[in-house]
Amino acid sequence: QVQLVESGGDLVQAGGSLRLSCAVSGLDFSSQHMAWYRQAPGKQREFVAVITPGGSTNYGDSVKGRFIISRDNAKNTVYLQMNGLKPEDTAVYYCKTTLRGEPRWGQGTQVTVSS
Question: What gap in Å lies between CA 75 and CA 48, rounded to an integer?
Fold first, then answer.
């Protein structure tokens, strides 16, 4: 059974930092592109960051220079380090990969940034 389980979401003040984790099981994690997306109420799901099996990264424009995606293949875990948080970062954050052409999503973790 494939599982993606996010954790680390919290309430944080603007300007603060937070690290999200996504623990993956049921697939060959080291061969997978892993991504983070986020969704606020009433808005479309938005791409945040992606990391390739080789460790190359890319980021959405709204988070460039503030967020860092990383992975630990020994722990089957992908991370999202979020710095300089803004109220507009408030959203449910989802971990995502693709298996046999189908997207696989975690359940999400809530990040709330207060003014």
Answer: 22
